[in-house]
Amino acid sequence: MMEMRPKLLCPSILNLAIDNIREEVEKLDATDMDIYHVDLMDGTFVPNFGMSVRELEMIRRVTDRGARKLIDCHMMVMNPHNYIEKVAQAGADIIYIHPESELIPSATLELIQMQGKKTGLILNPCTALERVKDMLPITDYVMIMAVNPGFAGREFMPYTRQKFIELNSYREEHGLDYHLLLDGGATKEIISDLYHNCGVEGFVLGKQELFFQEEDYAACIDRIRAY
Ligand code: DX5
Ligand code: ZN
């Protein structure tokens, strides 16, 4: 019987319209959600622009006056080491980097640690375990993308399921303790399968389950906890 870790529910703020992002973050803050997921993009590492350090600072201010939730920053930028200090100062608690975005990703993880923040590695659908396994002992959070990065609202690519299984087995076999999470395409069926069968505890939530639903955020979060 697999040990069940508590779910980590991570609303993807990219899904919110810029017009009312602050009010929506205030509503999210009052729920039982766990970690804000903030997508930074540079238009080079991925063919799109996402959020910026200013939105990160705004979310930090809102939650510091509210429930004091954790914030993660998903850096879809080339050479993220140039921006770690800025992102840390803006209030990210967990900083995810893509191994392909750096010549020496392990040095960037060390930089994140030196800022007193939690380290995160985020793998594209085609990034092999082999590429990151030596860095796993210094990684607190491992996120696997089940969609190609840069856009919200895409469908879960089924071949990525095997990578969750590998990262979960690797964690057990090597006595490591990183959190394992999904970014992209999280539906009820996917969340339930990955949580119960593949040792995945964290889920980035988008339009499929959390945003633009008939129920309010609190009811959605409760519903997802029960999947
Ligand atoms: C995609 C982003 C995700 C995105 C996921 O590049 O990293 O955070 O919001 O959205 P959904 O859950 O809609 O696929
Ligand atoms: Zn993301």
UniProtKB/TrEMBL annotation:
Gene3D superfamilies, per the entry: Aldolase class I
UniProt keyword Cell division present: no
The UniProt record lists the keyword Ribonucleoprotein: no
Single GO MF annotation: D-ribulose-phosphate 3-epimerase activity
EC number: 5.1.3.1
Keywords for the protein's UniProt record, in alphabetical order: Isomerase, Metal-binding
Short name of one Pfam family: Ribul_P_3_epim
Protein name in UniProt: Ribulose-phosphate 3-epimerase
Protein source organism: Enterocloster citroniae
Lineage per the UniProt record: Bacteria, Bacillati, Bacillota, Clostridia, Lachnospirales
